[in-house]
Amino acid sequence: MVTLSRRSGQPGAVLTIISCVANSLVCGSPVHVIFSPLIAVTSSSFSTLVQLFDTHHSELLEAWVAQQLQVLSRTGKISRSELEAQCQEFLDAFRAALRSGVTADIQALQWSRVREILGSVSRSRAVQGFTPSETAMFIFSLKRPLGNLIQGGAANAKEINTLVWPINELLDMLGLYTTEVYQKGRDEVIRRQQEDMLELSTPVVQLWDGVLALPIIGTLDSARTQVVMETLLQRIVETESDVAIIDITGVPTVDTLTAQHLLKTVTAARLMGADCIISGIRPQIAQTIVHLGVDLGDIVTKGTLADAFRVALQRMGPSLARPTRPGLGR
Amino acid sequence: MERIPILRMGTFLLVTIQVDMHDRLATALQDDLTTRIAEVGARGVLIDISSLEIVDSFIGRMLANIAGMARVLDAETVVVGMRPAVAITLVELGLSLTGVRTALSVEKGMAILQASQQHAFTIPELDAPENEETDDSTEHARSQT
C-alpha cells in the first residue's frame, strides 16, 4: 500500500497500476506482481514481435478487422473499408514504433504517431456517436489476434510469456489513452452545444411599441447572464423601449448569484433610462428569495407576464397620450 | 483649455458630452455647470452621454455628484442615452447612480423634465403665478450673481 500511495503521485503511474491489477486479476496471478518493475522488456523480445508482424501482417489485419466487425457491423456506424483503413494505418504506426525502440512508455516520442492516429480515431468516433466501449474496443480487440500471433510464432512457453505481458500492458495503456481522448472529444461537443444554446436561449421579443419582453428559460449562470444582459440592453437601445419585462417562469432555481445577476441587469437598464419588471416568480422561488435574504429593492415584480404587460401599458399610456408642450420654458 | 459646451433651452440646461472625458474636463464641467445653474436659475439639467464610450469610477461619481449639486441648486438632472457597455461598467463598479433620473433619448429626457416642471407648477393651482414665479426665480438668480 505504501508503494501504491507513493506512486500515485503521477497519473501515469496510477494508470499503470490499474492496468496491472486488471491483468493480474484476469490471469489469476498473485497481486504482488503489481509492484514488480513495469517494463522488463528486452529488445530481443520486441524484435521477435516485429518479425512476426512483418511476416503475418495481412493475417493480423484481417483477424483484427473481423473481430471488430462482429460488434460494429450491427450498429452500422462505420463501413468495412473505413475500418480497414483505420486499422491499417494504426498497425503500420504500431509496428514502426515497436521497431524503433524497446520502451513501452506511450508518452515517448516514438509513440507520437500512434497516439496521433488513436487520437483522430477516437475523436471522430466521439463525434459520430460511438459509445465509450465501442471506441475503446478499437484497441482492446487487437489483443486476441496479437495473442494468437504470438502463440503461433513463439518458440516456447517462456517466450510467449515474455512477449504477452508487455504487449498486454502496452495495449491497456493505449486503450486508456483512447478513452481519455474520447472523453475530451465528448466534452468538446458538449461545450460547443452549450455555446450554441447560449446564443439561442436569449430571445428578446417586442410586445408593444416601447415594451420588450425577455423570457428566460433554464438556469442562469454568470456566462449566460452576461449574454442576457448585453442582448437586453442592446435591444433597449435599438427599439427605444421604456419598459423591459424579464420573465423568469422558466428558471428552475434562483440562488443568491442569480438574484444578484438579475439586480445588475435591472440596474443597468435603469441607468439607460428603461424600467424593468420581473414577472413569473413562482411560489417556491419567492420563498427561496426571502429565505436567502435577497433584497430585490424597489424592483417591480408581477406574478405573470400578462400582469407585467398590463402595468407596462399603463405606465406608458399617459406619456404616449400626453401632447408635447413646446415653449414651456421661455 | 478644452471645455464642454453648456446650452440653455428655456429653463433647462443641455450638456452634450461628445469627447472622451478625462478627470480635469469632468471637474471643469462640474464648476461650469453649477455656475450656470445658479446664473440662469435653471430648473433642469439634461446630460447627453450617448457619445461617451468609456467611463471609469471617477466619471461615474462625477455624474452622481453633478446630480446632487444640481438638486441642491433646485434643478433636476436627467442623464440620457447611456450606452449598454457604459451601463454594465457602472453597475460592475457598484455605481447605480441612485437619485439620477435617466432616459433613453434626449426627447424622452426633455419630456421627463417638462413633466416634472409642469407638476411643480400645478401645485399652487393658480394660472397666473406660473410666469411670475419663474420670472422671480430668474431675477433672484441674476441678482445673486
What's a quick, concise take on this entry?
By secondary structure, chain A is of the alpha/beta class. Chain A has helices at residues 2-7, 11-27, 43-55, 57-75, 80-100, 112-128, 132-140, 143-153, 157-200, 222-239, 256-272, 283-292, 305-321, and strands spanning 205-208, 211-217, 243-250, 275-279, 300-302.
Could you describe the 3D structure shown?
The complex is a heterodimer of chains A (330) and B (145). With 330 residues, chain A is of the alpha/beta class. Chain A has 3 domains: 38 residues, no CATH class; 156 residues, Globin-like, CATH 1.10.490; 115 residues, STAS domain (Transcription Regulator spoIIAA, 2-Layer Sandwich). Chain A has a 5-stranded mixed sheet with strand order 1-2-3-4-5, with helices on both faces. In chain A, helix 7 runs antiparallel to helix 9. The longest helix of chain A is centred in the middle third of the chain and has 44 residues. The N terminus and C terminus of chain A are likely disordered. Chain B has a single domain, classed as Transcription Regulator spoIIAA (2-Layer Sandwich), CATH 3.30.750.24. The radius of gyration of chain B is 16 Å and the shape is globular. The C terminus of chain B is likely disordered. Classes of the chains: A alpha/beta (330), B alpha/beta (145).
Write a concise keyword list for the protein shown above.
heterodimer, A: 330 residues, alpha/beta, Globin-like, Transcription Regulator spoIIAA, 3 domains, 5-stranded mixed sheet, 13 helices, 66% helix, disordered N terminus, B: 145 residues, disordered C terminus
